[in-house]
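Sample 3 of the quickstart, ligand flavin mononucleotide:
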Amino acid sequence: MSHILGVTSSLRSKMNPKKVLRKIKNFRDFDSVVAYINEQAVAGELSNSEAGLVAGIYGAMSLGTEVKDIIVLKDIYNKKSQLPSSWTDRLRRLLNDCQGLLFATPVYFGDRSSYLNAFLTYLDQEKLVPEACVAGFISAGAKRNGGQETTNIFGILDCLRLGLYAVSNGPPTSQYGGTIFAGSIGSVADESFGLTTSKGTGKRVGEVSKLLNFDTKPNLKILLVGVSCERILDLAEKVESALKRKKRIKVEFLNLADYAIERCRACASCPNPRTKKNDYKCIIPDEMKKIRSKIIDSDALLILSEGENDPHFQYQIFMERTRFIRRNNFELTNVPVAQIHLNSTKEMSIFPARILTSFLRHNTVFVAPPLIISGKENKFVFKTGTEKYIDRFIESCRRIVGGSQVVSLENNYYEPVGYRAM
Ligand SMILES: Cc1cc2nc3c(=O)[nH]c(=O)nc-3n(C[C@H](O)[C@H](O)[C@H](O)COP(=O)(O)O)c2cc1C
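Result:
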């Protein structure tokens, strides 16, 4: 059985974790959980982000995972923002056998709470981050679009940086986690969308935590996807030969620049949830069909990018065309993804973050932060950092792909959200 830990980080936390955990175990359906959340929130016993966490924990438990504990950061941090030393050992024990972390935070200025910020840094400094563990984010803000998504995305990026894996909130929307829209304590009672995305986040963390419980080390087929041209060929060649030196790995390089693809027509042909797994329903007769078959035939994706964009703007055209891959019942579900980015200027590149946010929508699992390689040299120098990144990528992919071969999870179905029924 996989184990999950919940973390709640509001400045006005109210939750009594023991009581909540005892209670959730007895619920058989989500409606009862929502009724309980509403009652507790109105009574002032749960803050809004905590309400989301309860929904998320139910989502994880509904898959048979065990939620070991919920840590209320407000209760354990002292005024100087330090954790009492007794907590290091307790956390080490809790995290030692933990395959999933579910973080809940209020949105404060479009970002996480200061408790959560301190806690993430602490996990890193004390080397408490488990070896193979997936994280999901739930946030609550008083405004619609008040920063719930920025908070979740920054949280996901940070978790990847710490060595955790990261997921979305899963179908039907597969965005960036739980997004609660509620301000005053108790107002979460009207927030069914946010509670549903929070439940989805917990379920997604639960699903991937189950995959991480196996260590079967299968053979892997890795696809390198090149999304720019200039120095990508050199990088791809070096990464490809590094991967080929590893045992039981097949690798293929797909350079988007070699394919002629049109823009998505935003038509109504591809939301076709009844399409069979391998049907290709895009109406545009171009080479996207070949790209798609290479992508879905692979076990894992390593995206190689460069600069701020590609000269032909082909990356975004490609991304838009992957719409039917998502709509074809999330064909990339649980495919591990990582990315290497060549940065030739001193300016911050947002390209890696864009790649992350788009590929997460495909219900994939990000297994590493973007590896950013800086420098202007024409030839890219393969350093130990890159070798280590590749080793960890392979190890993570084997775990997730191996787990997917053993664990049977519910099928995903695409349901249009935000569109009228056709
Ligand atoms: C310091 C501070 C900053 C805030 N910043 C935002 C914000 O950027 N966007 C937003 O929608 N709400 C913001 N809020 C409102 C809270 O996110 C909102 O009340 C939320 O429900 C709090 O979650 P909680 O009930 O779990 O504490 C802020 C509140 C505080 C105290």
